[in-house]
């Protein structure tokens, strides 16, 4: 990329002439003197040509080919090897019209060739043509530089958002309910978040949500929902009743009040005494319960619309008995909605055998992500990967 001038050019044309003859320098000065948008500099010593160009920041360089102490074509090469002048247009000046010399000049980096001294109208036309092209190049490079900086800042913000979401996730736990999880934020940061907590001595809640879209906005909404549930500040809500939780989340987080974003959620409450699991879902994939009776899990879903789509929604509740040793998997659709090499999207049915085999994998549920990544042919996912495993003693 071209190094930008040290001072703004502001669409002014800046002409640098390098010629050992002062008479030529004066003649060119007079040709340009009546042009209000052209700044002119003259360098008579070719040994100072590079330094003069770096300080003057020309939009076009006029350079004689025959000067004492240095070959003009060699000086052209030096300009092209210098980062500050590499892309500045160069018009070489010669006293002769020679095809071989012209070809050599162009081969070494010259942009144009004039027999000196040219007609004033022609010289001005070439100066303006080459200067406009160079100014456009600088403007394009500045736009690219600004875009790269914006992308760098955005990437930093997304990384911070992903780190913040991860910092809020609960630690894995052992005991009567052993919990392991795997979470990998996608490159653009999705809206996944999950948590679990004892509501009282007998009731344990597990929930996982997925905000639509990606970016900082989705992450902030997921964090807001997570904090609301963790702090138990959802109004008029019994956290032991999934239908109450989802109905009140829907009332509080209507999409028109949250930048048109909605979210899906799976929310379940396990009663330790009765071993009953009550659950409700809002547009979310089913949780999978393996009860030891066979390789096929029970799919725990109570279909309903996502949170925020419509006011005053009722959310049906499902119930299931959890046997000793039962395994429950709660996840977002990012764990299986991946593109496969055979140009189709992986389905939930494709994914189920991966979690069915998870206890037999040395890496546990992390092996699930590794297997899905291998299947799609790359490590990074287009959506957040969130998978929580609960084992009930």
Provide a descriptive summary of the structure in words:
There is one protein chain. By secondary structure, the protein is α+β, with helices and mostly antiparallel strands. It folds into two domains: 13-143, 3-Layer(aba) Sandwich (Rossmann fold); 169-392, 4-Layer Sandwich (Phosphatase 2c, domain 1), CATH 3.60.40. Helix content is 34%, strand content 24%. The chain has nine helices and 17 strands. It has helices at residues 22-32, 49-56, 72-81, 99-107, 120-168, 216-230, 242-252, 348-356, 366-376; strands at residues 13-18, 38-43, 60-64, 66-67, 70-71, 90-94, 112-115, 177-184, 191-198, 203-211, 263-271, 276-282, 287-290, 298-300, 318-321, 327-331, 385-392. Strands 2-1-3-6-7 form a five-stranded parallel sheet, sandwiched between helices. Strand 1, helix 1 and strand 2 (38-43) form a beta-alpha-beta unit. Helix 5 packs parallel to helix 6. Residues 1-9 have low confidence and may be disordered.
């Amino acid at each position: 990329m071209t190094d930008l001038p040290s001072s703004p050019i502001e669409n002014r044309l800046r002409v640098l002439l390098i010629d050992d003859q002062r008479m030529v320098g004066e003649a060119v000065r007079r040709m340009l003197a009546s042009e209000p948008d052209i700044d002119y500099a003259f360098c008579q010593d070719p040994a100072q040509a590079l330094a003069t160009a770096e300080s003057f920041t020309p939009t076009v360089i006029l350079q004689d080919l025959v000067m004492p102490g240095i070959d003009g074509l060699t000086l052209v090469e030096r300009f092209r090897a210098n980062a500050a002048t590499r892309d500045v247009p160069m018009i070489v000046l010669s006293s002769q019209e020679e095809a071989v010399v012209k070809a050599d000049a162009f081969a070494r980096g010259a942009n144009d060739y004039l027999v000196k001294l040219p007609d004033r109208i022609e010289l001005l036309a070439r100066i303006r043509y080459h200067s406009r092209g160079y100014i456009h190049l600088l403007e394009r490079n500045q736009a690219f530089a600004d875009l790269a900086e914006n992308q760098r800042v955005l990437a930093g913000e997304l990384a911070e958002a992903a780190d913040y979401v991860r910092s809020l996730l609960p630690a894995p736990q052992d005991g009567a309910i052993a919990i392991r999880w795997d979470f990998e934020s996608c490159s653009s940061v999705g809206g996944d978040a999950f948590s679990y907590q004892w509501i009282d001595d007998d009731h344990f809640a597990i929930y996982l949500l997925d905000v639509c879209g990606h970016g900082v906005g989705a992450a902030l909404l997921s964090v807001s929902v997570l904090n609301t549930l963790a702090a138990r500040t959802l109004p008029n809500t019994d956290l032991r009743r999934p239908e109450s939780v989802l109905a009140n989340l829907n009332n509080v987080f209507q999409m028109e009040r949250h930048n048109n974003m909605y979210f899906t959620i799976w929310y379940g409450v396990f009663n330790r005494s009765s071993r009953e699991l009550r659950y409700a879902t809002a547009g979310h994939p089913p949780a999978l319960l393996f009860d030891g009776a066979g390789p096929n899990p029970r799919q725990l879903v109570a279909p309903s619309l996502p949170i925020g789509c419509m006011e005053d929604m009722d959310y049906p509740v499902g119930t299931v008995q959890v046997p000793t040793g039962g395994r429950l998997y709660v996840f977002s659709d990012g764990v299986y909605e991946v593109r496969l090499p055979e140009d189709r999207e992986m389905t939930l049915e494709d994914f189920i055998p991966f979690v069915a085999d998870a206890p037999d994998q040395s890496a546990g549920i992390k092996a699930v992500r590794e297997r899905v990544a291998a299947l799609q042919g790359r490590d990074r996912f287009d959506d957040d990967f969130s998978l929580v495993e609960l084992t009930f003693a």
